[in-house]
Amino acid sequence: MRYRSQAWFEGRDELGLQHRSALRTMGIDFENFRGRPVIGIANSWSELNNCNMNLRDVAAAVRRGILAAGGLPLEFPTISLGEEFMKPTAMLYRNLMAMDVEEMLRANPLDGVVLLCNCDKTGPAQLMGAASANLPSIQVNGGPRNAGHWRGMEVGSGTDLWKYWDEYRTGKLSKQDWQDLERCMSCGAGACNVMGTASTMSAIAEGLGMMLPGSSTIAANDAGRMAVAEESGHRIVALVEQDLRPTAILTAAAFDNAIRLCMALGGSTNAILHLIALAGRVGIELPLDRFDKLGRTTPFLADVKPSGRHLIHALHAAGGVPAVMKEIESLLHRDCITVTGKTLGENLQGVVCRDASVIRPFAEPLRAEGAIAVLKGNLVPRGAIVKTAAASPHLLRHLGTAVVFEDYEDMLARVDDPELEVTADSVLVMRNCGPMGVPGMPEWGAIPIPRKLQAIGVSDMVRISDARMSGTSYGTVVLHACPESAAGGPLAVVRTGDAIRLDVPQRQLELLLPEDEIARRMEEWRPHRSPHLRGYPRLYIDHVLQCDLGCDFDFLRPRNEEERMFVPPVVGRS
Questions:
Q1: 233 and 64 in contact (C-beta within 8 Å)?
Q2: First vs last Cα of the chain: how many Å apart?
Q3: What single-letter DSSP state applies at residue 403?
Q4: Of 150, 159, 204, which Cα lies nearest the Cα of 310?
Q5: Staple partner for 75: which of 14, 41, 191, 269, CB 3.0–4.6 Å?
Q6: What is the DSSP letter of 415?
Q7: How far apart are CA 504 and CA 125, in angstroms?
Q8: Distance between CA atoms of residues 108 and 157, nearest Å
Q9: CA distance linking residue 512 with residue 504, whole number of Å
Q10: What's the CA gap between 127 and 101, in Å, rounded?
Q11: What is the rounded distance in angstroms from the CA atom of residue 298 to the CA atom of residue 50?
């Protein structure tokens, strides 16, 4: 059979009739589409996810493109992971959404799929599911939201919130100021308009070759957003005809390109977790050392918040992701195939940067090295990361004594206590916030500066945790301490008063204690008993991998080539 869907609609007589009849109940006459591919539209629209609120309109545009190209579009919903409402964190449910997408593709009569995403975890979850199902796929994001204006300045989602929250906490902003800011930040559907995780992961999808060139940075309310959605619908039919599948696009070379793009963009630290998880789905090992090696030779070019001055719409006007990749083209694998059917090198022909103040030239970077560094040492044997582009230069080499918070609740209860024994040189340490510890590894890593220090002008400190940090955040924050404390990592035995040395240039993070003392403390350590006894959180705790393996589930990563390429046969009776 030419198409996978024909096994449903033109297979055994009684089943074929049943399936064609099911289409008729939806007003679709299969005879009008006989011999044509069936294309799924995986829509993560939800009123529980403000970032994805425009995806109904995007889906309609995709549908037009599929129909124009001769395909039969069938839209279906998936879980939608919204950063604003989901607690303790949307990251807890990324793997669940990936399973949702994978199984919907596997179980239904689909020949290809258009993946509609926008908020932070929806994009990587869809790519993970699509990579495992391995049907021809293309991704379309909903785009960044409009910029609000407050006191004559553009307001960036998230990044400016954290800055003004510190001012409100210390009495520099009035309650009325705070309420005015709330109204200014509520500027319509779309993802955060800074280089947070949503914008980073959409850009990376484009850089990997899974999204049409230049599409990831188009604003949510721009007419171009609908035009590229329609083009993507048209393109997915061609991908099915060419049998161009995710495993042909998501190669080791493509992941190298994505890492370099992330570094050049000043992308979110969360991208490391998602790229490792996605690579694992196609059987590619992506160690943390790879990120550090490529980061050391990739310049940071995009002057975009939180590591720069501008918002995403300025990046788009300057040429978007293609213009950034053109600047670092000499570092990229240009022969990688993309959803255009062309190579990356072919896609970059004729691309130019339209504003060198937003996308800096390769020879005049904002920083000679990329935005993220990987640390190792006796405190983080399997690694940790720090976003150097958003850190304070004077803190990249630092020696201080620990102020330890047992967990997030302990930190909230004590961080603003006037009696807290803390100085500007202290190292704030928070544990039990990793993949197993909460569970889900929330974005709690940007521990707030104690109020009494803010009052005397301290705006940054070294902070260490096994949590994540929002891509919109900034500061000298060490994240993803691995192994996490709940899994018996050394972070579990740090005590207030212990000396810690951070040396980012040397990529080191050390607990300055004798090894026998650390070993003695580890022998005394006992894990906390999780309150989650059943359901999905229990499944997550029991099967989640540590963050150096992307926090995917152990049973979702193929163990060998046979598992990676396995596609279950279409059998049975509905």
A1: yes
A2: 20
A3: E
A4: 159
A5: 41
A6: T
A7: 31
A8: 38
A9: 16
A10: 9
A11: 34
Pick from 333, 9, 310: nearest CA to 160:
310
**Two tokens, residue 60:** 């309609």
Q: How far are the Cα atoms of 199, 213, 250, 524 from residue 231, in angstroms, in the given order?
A: 21, 11, 21, 60
Contact assessment for residue 241 and residue 66, using Cβ atoms and an 8 Å cutoff: no
Look up residue 51 and give its DSSP letter: G
Q: Is the peptide bond before 483 cis (omega within 30 degrees of 0)?
A: yes
Residue type, 255: F
For residue 76, the tally of other CB atoms under 10 A from its CB is 14
Q: Are strands 380-387 and 372-377 parallel, antiparallel or unpaired?
A: antiparallel
The structural architecture, per CATH, of the domain 36-145+188-348 is 3-Layer(aba) Sandwich (3.40)
Model pTM score: 0.94
Task: For domain 372-524, give the CATH number.
Answer: 3.50.30.80
What is the rounded distance in angstroms from the CA atom of residue 440 to the CA atom of residue 554?
15
From 127, 131, 167, select the one nearest 150 (Cα to Cα): 167
Of residues 412, 485, 421, the one with CA closest to residue 453: 421
Domain edges within the chain: 36-145+188-348, 158-185, 372-524
Quote the CA–CA distance of 188 and 53 in Å, as a whole number. Answer: 9
Tokens of 235: 């393109």
- In tens digits, what is the pLDDT along the chain, a chain of 574 residues? 789 999 999 977 888 999 999 999 999 999 999 999 999 999 999 999 999 999 999 999 999 999 999 999 999 999 999 998 999 999 999 999 999 999 999 999 999 999 999 999 999 999 999 999 999 999 999 999 988 777 777 777 766 676 777 777 777 788 887 787 777 776 778 998 999 999 999 999 999 999 999 999 999 999 999 999 999 999 999 999 999 999 999 999 999 999 999 999 999 999 999 999 999 999 999 999 999 999 999 999 999 998 899 999 999 999 999 999 999 999 999 999 999 999 999 999 999 999 999 999 999 999 998 889 999 999 999 999 999 988 999 999 999 999 999 999 999 999 999 999 999 999 999 999 999 999 999 999 999 999 999 989 999 999 999 999 987 788 999 999 999 999 999 999 999 999 999 999 999 999 999 999 999 999 999 988 888 889 999 999 999 999 999 999 999 998 777 776 666 666 555 4
Q: Tell me the residue type at 497.
A: G
Q: Is 559 helix (H, G, I), strand (E, B) or coil?
A: coil
